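User: For my dataset I need records formatted as: sequence, then structure tokens, nothing else. Please produce one.
Assistant:
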Amino acid sequence: MTTFTKSALLTALMIPAAALAQLDVGQQLGSTEADVRAALTGMGYEVQEIEIEGNEIEAEVMLDGVELEIEVAMDTGLIIEIETEDDDDHGDD
């Protein structure tokens, strides 16, 4: 029987979740709302809202309490911008 330390077991459990959550500018998600939703959901994100604005698909997603806005070019299906939801709020009110 193999014995694992707590840290080795925790590391083994956390690595797959971190790998699934990784998003990068230039990453392919798809060129339709359905493609983008499926890709993000498959990575573990909760899609809160998704809409088309101009030639971009904008998705508001959440993972582990962090809200992101993902912008995807419809012509290429590539991520063109990733913002944290509070990037627009600088407390200048």
